Amino acid sequence: MKDILMQFCLVGKVLSCQRYGEGHVNQTYLVITDTNQRYILQRLSRTAFHDIPGLMANVAAVTDFLSARSENPRDCMHLVCCRDGSTYYRDGEGEYWRMLDYVPDSICLQAAESPEDFYQSALAFGRFQRMLNDFPAHTLTETIPNFHNTPDRYRIFHEVLRKDPLGRAEGLADEIAFVLAREAEAGALQSMRDSGELPLRVTHNDTKLNNVMFDEKTREALCVIDLDTVMPGLVAYDFGDSIRFGASTGAEDEKDLDKIQVDLSLYRRYLEGFIPACGLLTRREIETLPLGAKLMTLECGLRFLTDYLDGDHYFGIKRPEHNLDRARTQFKLVADMERKWGEMQRMAEEFLP
Ligand code: GN1
Ligand code: MG
To answer: At a CB cut-off of 8 Å and minimum separation 6, what does 221 contact?
Structure first.
């Protein structure tokens, strides 16, 4: 670790470097120096990302673009360069590391502690969307091709299910039946993307509440982090993934499914923040936001289930059935959204221009 830390231009001498946060893909550390500077060090997942230099070029371009347009340094995250000027370091084992400034006086939340927290996150992701409206999208590398292409996620699921490498499918009849029953409708957003009915924008694609930093005192959302999956996409992806994570009444890995529902008052609060903060959404985009919520939740559950069947190579786990527990909460949420579907659509329609 010493060798890695030495590569970056830090202020002060490193006092500590400890595992930090709840991300499922990269490994994150908090670094503190003797001048009390804080940094975030991350080892990027080579399982998830196959072109890390391309990914880092995206992150650098987006952060440069955002910081040129922001008034306050806390409005966007900042990369800390290596002594040789590059934005990441590749160690002797081929692992990729990057360093970020810790956003001063900020906190990260695993769950909204009040509807206002969730509203604030909606403002942050909406502003992010709007600020990147004139970003040259064609310059972005697709860091994970087909990231939110739900039919492609089904294709991979079927492949893994056929192989069933650990013989886990046998005990999963209900979960498998649940996803198969929804396969036909799961391609709806992808079809609208392919037909051009919905505009491609630069989207974040991983809009969990814990990818937003809040001011520790005022609780205002400051900026959006985790820019690894910034790519051209549909606004329904960003809206949907936020609802999936933040409008649930329980944690993503809650074992007691009775605790899992979609909270419609939180859903509405997010609509209230996100739509005006984005500005410029078309009628069709607003109409498809509820679909984004349902399909991003289904897709995420499908990804957790696939990874469980495959032996947990992608998402980090802390217990043997962690990915299965995560899949189950997502399916419980989808079922609850289906029950509340009429209301979810009506609420979104109130925001039509
Ligand atoms: C991963 O990296 P993290 O924990 O912010 C994943 C998202 C999933 C999410 C589920 C690159 O996000 O797509 O929705 O876990 N990121 C990647 O919690 O696959
Ligand atoms: Mg994250």
So the answer is: 120, 121, 123, 124, 212, 213, 214
